[in-house]
Amino acid sequence: MGEQKDRMLAGEWYIADDPELKADTLRRVALCAAYNANGGAPPEKRAAILRELLGSVGEGVRIRPPFQCDFGARISVGDRVFVNVNAVFLDIGPITIGSDVQIGPNVQLLTPTHELDAERRRAGWEKGEPITIGDNVWLGGGVIVCPGVTIGENTVVGAGAVVTKDLPPGVLAVGNPARVIRALG
């Protein structure tokens, strides 16, 4: 692999405008376009595109188009996951989604982070921090999950929340930034 891709995969700062990474992006663009264009295609055809696009896909996964991602290969989805329309999963860092997760419309899982230093940001430096979504999580419509966040199993995140830090298992969190308002169950 190339130096920049190696750095990206290691979670280090790298230059995003790299020819090898552009080739991976072209692959993703073609697969996302095929998936989104085949919204009415038989489920088997759409499932085959997802298996080629994503790193791993469990049984019974339903992702409604349109769906967008950076690379796809860094996304792992468990069994019986439902993702509603207009999902954006930016997988510069790994995204791991457990089983029985429900994701509302317009949800964004954002692993990239950029330099605060203007000069380095202008030069294209970025890195990815992983996102982990536990089993049986529900992310309401319009939720944004920021880089490096883990959401514990059985947690519910209310519509429009911006999750900037880890959430424990079995809680209800709402707001911007998301805050736990009560335990569940």
What can you tell me about this protein's structure?
It is built from four helices and 20 strands. 23% of the residues lie in helices and 30% in strands. With 185 residues, it is of the alpha/beta class. Strands 3-6-9-14-17-19-20 form a seven-stranded mixed beta sheet, with no helix packed on it. A five-stranded parallel beta sheet has the order 2-5-8-13-16, with no helix packed on it. A five-stranded parallel beta sheet has the order 4-7-10-15-18. Helix 2 (19-37) runs antiparallel to helix 3. The chain has one domain: UDP N-Acetylglucosamine Acyltransferase, domain 1. A hairpin with a 4-residue loop joins strand 19 and strand 20 (179-183).
CATH class: Mainly Beta
Q: How many runs of DSSP E, i.e. beta strands?
A: 20
- Counting helices, strands and paired strands, the structural category is alpha/beta
Query: Which percent band covers the strand fraction?
Result: 25-35%
Q: Mean pLDDT across all residues, rounded? A: 94
Report strand order across the widest sheet: 3-6-9-14-17-19-20
Number of helices: 4
CATH architecture type: 3 Solenoid
Backbone CA Rg = 16 Å
Low-confidence stretches: none
Portion in helices = 10-25%
Question: How many domains?
Answer: 1
Characterize the main sheet: 7 strands, mixed
